[in-house]
Amino acid sequence: MTAEVAAVIGAVLALWLGLAGWAMFSGMRMRARARAAASQADRLKLLLDSAPALPLVVRADGRVEAPERLADWLGLPRLPSFIGDIAGDEVGLSADDAALLVKDISTAQRSAGSFVRTVRAQGSTRTLMIRGAAAGAGLSAAGGVILWFFDATESETEIGRLGREAARLASAFDALSALIDTAPMPMWHRGEGLGLTLVNQAYVRAVEGGSVAAVVERGIELVDSAAELSPTATAATARDENRTIVRTAPATINGERRMLRIVDVPLGDLGVAGYAIDIEDEEQARGAMRRFAATQRDMLDRLSGGVAQFGPDRALVFSNQPFRRMFNMKSEWLADAPEFDRVLERMREGGRLPEVRDFPGWKAERRDWFRAADGAIEENWLLPAGAHMRVVGHPLPDGGLLLIFEDRTEQIQLASARDTLLRVRAATFDNLFEGVAVFAADGRLQLWNNRFRAIWGFDERLLDAHPRIDQLADAAGQALANPSRAGLIRELVRVATVERGQRSGRVAFADGRHFDFAAVPLPDGNALFTMLDISDSRRIEQALRDKNEALEAAGRESAGFMGNMSYELRTPLTAIAGFAEMLAGGFAGDLPEAAEPYVVSIRSEVARLGTLIDNMLDLAQRGAGGIAIDKAPFDLATAMQAVAETLDMSARARAIDLAVQTEESLGSIEGDDRRIRQALDHLVRLAIASMPEGGRVLLHGDGTLAGARLIVSDDGPGMDEAAQARAFERPEDNGAAGEGQPASALLIARDIVEAHGGTLNLVSEPGEGTMITIVLPRR
User: Fold this and answer.
1) Mean pLDDT across 558-576
2) Where is the Histidine kinase domain (predicted)?
3) Least enclosed by CB within 10 Å: which of 220, 387, 455, 625?
4) Mind listing the pLDDT tens digit for each residue in 457-515?
5) Contact 257, 167 (CB under 8 A)
6) CA atoms of 20 and 514, how far apart (whole Å)
7) Binning pLDDT at 50, 70 and 90, where does residue 637 land?
């Protein structure tokens, strides 16, 4: 073998080896690519299998390529070869859906457009949405169409649900809008600029705006836009701070000033909504409640019992003044609202709680009063000092407790005293000298004493049966002198029990006894019947009556005698006075000077004797029934002057100054002029007679609209108390009556004044003189 051949062979071998190596390398690379492609295909297949949509390629000749899973979606046992076979009688698509789908595919093949169709597989609840478009060259030859099948069952269900929800919400919105529009309270909405965008009819009526459009267009606000209460400012605050704002403000609605609670509610980007509630009645009720609470607390402060109120947290919320006094608690300490247990402890420290061994347990039992379900709890506390306290605990609906304390110490003492008094009364009742019985409102005998039974001689068994007054009156008639008088007893008890009147009477018994009886209504509706034995007083009364008749007869005889004697004395006295006047007048010739004093003395003594006779006659009339007067109007000043002129000579004879002083208010009265002059004459004569020479007597007169006042005063020696006491005694009691005797003068003057309805008073001091005051009424 030559070298060239060997070289060629070596070259060929080398080339073959190189080609073999390149082939091996290429195969290995292609193998790696195949493996990568297979892996990629597997991944794509997995991705396609898990995709929510399944593809279906329709070639130009109608053949189809698709995953087998699509047959399940369509409800077919296997995937058909042609698109026209996708419909079936009971499976696959319905004939209508299949025809429409074929038409859509044909259109897409011609126009290279896309389409979307929703179909439902027969015998299945699936809803499929098909999106179709012309297939690219990589998937099919020209005229191919790719269909993507989406399972839209859940989407359609959700869309249906959302549609129904939207319809429901729309209906609810319409109803809510109608509700808001017909709501009785004003409601509104503010837009982004806080201007009114919507109001309801109540708002329109409140602002009298006419219509919703007019109110919104004019921006009529419900509340006055005061600086601190600006509606837009409040709405801006609610929007900016994203919180609901509630405030109260006054507004004029339908011509009335009302208080409104206004609420602004932020709605985020949708603006601010608001509504107003009329709380005028609520405010008035709240004010009335506050006034009621204040009045109630004021009333509780005026109660005699102590009152303490605890809240649901057992803190003291109120206590009245009697409570503070009763338990000696200072207002400053109570103002801190102490807890229930602390109040009990403070009571215990002050000795105002009962002494108990287990105080914590006792306190816990009282704490249970807050939750008591049986209503009010009542206890009686015996305090260490012997005081008695009545305690009433009343649980309140809010969980609090109301305690009422009543100090019954005095009441219990009074009850004890009352029991003692009742026992004493019962003993006294049974031992009274009077017969006593008590009848009920129905006329039945309730109580009686032994004297009542003994007076009538009733059988004990009859009284124990508590008979009615009719039965008792029938039994009582047998003991009376006149049995028909028993009806009077029945009538008296009836008047006292039924008519509530008081009556009395007198009955005579058959045995000669006499009784006064009376029926008196009692406060409890019963009647008290009393009987008093007046047999002895009756006999004494009869004797006194006989004696009085004899005395009256003797007085009449004495008055007649005095009158006759006065007449007999006046007859010669008048003749003597007449002859003395004639002598003084010169009818018997001129009198010698020596005879004149005798004539004057005769005239003076005749006048004095006439006065004594008048006094005797007045005293006789006084004893016979009083001094008779004839009333007629007369002037008092004239009467006073006449008396002064009559006694002027007697006063001058003793150098006594007799003065008369009258005022314009004295006036006149309706009375007996002669008798008033007689009374003044007696008093002035008495003053002149009791005065030493050189004294002074004043006769003064004044008056008012009601009456006149006459004063006779002197500066004489006066009278001591003993003399004043004897001044108004009868003449037979202090000696014979004379012109200077005060007994007859003062007594007659006082009788004359009292006969005119007036009064006579004497005031005197030894060495200071005497003043006698007469007061006479105008009528």
Assistant:
1) 64
2) 564-779
3) 625
4) 888 888 888 888 888 888 887 888 788 877 887 887 888 888 888 888 888 888 878 88
5) no
6) 179
7) very high
Per the listing, tokens 């602390």 go with: 342
Q: Identify which of 185, 273, 161, 182 has the alpha carbon closest to the alpha carbon of residue 169.
A: 161
Give which of 599, 604, 597 is closest to 584, Cα–Cα: 599
Could you list the beta-strand ranges (E) of 232-271.
Answer: 245-253, 256-266
Residue 630 pLDDT greater than 70, yes or no: yes
Backbone dihedral angles phi then psi of residue 261, each to the nearest 5 degrees: -100, 115
Question: What is the per-residue pLDDT across 437-471, written as a single tens digit (0 to 9) for each?
Answer: 888 888 888 788 888 888 888 888 888 888 888 88
Distance from C-alpha of 756 to C-alpha of 679, rounded to nearest angstrom: 12
Q: Within a 13 Å sphere around the CA of 517, how many CA atoms are in the beta-carbon half?
A: 27
d(CA 435, CA 513): 14
CA–CA distance, 27 with 9 (Å, rounded to integer): 26
The residues, ordered by sequence, that sit 6+ positions from 15 with a Cβ below 8 Å of its Cβ are none
Could you tell me which residues come within 8 angstroms of residue 284 by beta carbon, excluding any fewer than 6 positions away? none
Report the C-alpha gap between 475 and 344 in whole angstroms. Answer: 66
For residues 29 and 41, what is the distance between their CA atoms, to the nearest angstrom?
18
124 secondary structure, DSSP code:
S
pTM: 0.34
145 Cβ neighbours under 8 A, 6+ residues apart: 57, 58, 105, 108, 109, 132, 133, 134, 135
Residue 434 pLDDT > 60, yes or no? yes
Q: Are strands 187-190 and 196-199 parallel, antiparallel or unpaired?
A: antiparallel
- What average pLDDT does the segment 406-426 reach? 79
3-state secondary structure of 517: strand
Q: What are residue 247's DSSP bridge partners?
A: 262
Tell me the helix, strand and coil percentages in the chain, rounded to 5: 50, 25, 25
Tell me the one-letter amino acid at 646.
T
* pLDDT exceeds cutoff 60 at 621: no
- Rounded CA separation 773/710 (Å): 6
CA 620 to the chain's CA centroid: 71
For residue 712, is pLDDT > 90? yes
Cβ-contact 669, 735 below 8 angstroms: no
Structure tokens at 657: 């100054």
The two structure tokens encoding residue 350: 């002050």
Q: Name the strands in the sheet holding 316-319, side by side, starting at the edge strand that comes first in the sequence.
A: 316-319, 306-310, 401-407, 388-395, 377-382
Rg over CA atoms, the chain: 67
Mapped onto helix, strand or coil, the DSSP state of residue 773 is: strand
Q: What does each C-alpha distance from 760 to 5, 532, 740, 750 come to in angstroms?
A: 203, 43, 19, 6
Locate the DSSP E strands across 157-254: 187-190, 196-199, 245-253
327-351: buried (b, 16+ CB within 10 Å) or exposed (e) per residue? bebeeeebeeebebeebbebbbeee
Question: Measured between alpha carbons, how far is 769 from 752 in angstroms, rounded to an integer?
Answer: 24
